[in-house]
Design brief:
InterPro entries: HTH-like_dom, Integrase_cat-core, RNaseH-like_sf, RNaseH_sf, Transpos_IS3, Transposase_IS3/IS150/IS904. This is Transposase. This protein is an alpha/beta fold. It has eleven helices and five strands. A five-stranded mixed sheet has the order 3-2-1-4-5, sandwiched between helices.
Length: about 270
Amino acid sequence: MLCELFDVASSCYYEFKQRKPDANRIRLASRTKELFNMSRGAAGSRTLVSILRSEGFEIGRFKVRKLMQEAGLVSKQPGSHRYKQAKSERPDIPNLLKREFSVVAPNQVWCGDITYIWSGSKWSYLAVVLDLFSRRVVGWALSNKPDADLTCKALDMAWEQRGRPNSVMFHSDQGCQYSSRQYRQRLWRYRITQSMSRRGNCWDNAPMERLFRSLKTEWVPATGYLTQTQAKRDISYYLMDYYNRQRPHQANDGLSPVNAENQLKTMSGIC
């Protein structure tokens, strides 16, 4: 009677009644939504595919897109940005890196930069040190002042955490914090070679620009943090846990920085 009322074939009704729920699809949809929420809405289909495959799921990008559409998940990604071009180098600290961002081993080239984060009623300043091999954050510091003490703390953390390595190149922009006597003395003490971008050329330090872009668009609340303590705790989790251990990176063929370094150790052990 109902089929006749709604003009539906009775065979369709019986087929629907016998249909069983796809447990695997439900599990995939649930995990996709969980990973999307963990990224605070930043993960797109490419990122989700990489994470799901690393967890043992056999899934493609088309299916992930379909699951995202069904759940109403839309990735928040910023638009493109055009940077100024410049050619002026410091004569005493040349651009030794020259945009050679592909590094074959850890602790060969580190990059550093500073950005600002709103916390409470004022700006806090974040300094980060990045290992170019795996794009792993190896040191960071947060402070009320964007001075040389801040950048030195981030460098100290990187040097200690990486086992006090030798023959490292450190690349940054021409900020006064990195060209200060205090910072250059710290590099000399650690036997680290210094390299600097050309003035006003952000592309010379593109990996750091990309990291801060991801941090601010994916993680930091649009209104900032209530306190600096809250900012330090949340940013620490993003840099040292989510970004280093969970978030896939295109430069690592979809692996997180930690997994990329572990893969190198495994391959070195086999060889």
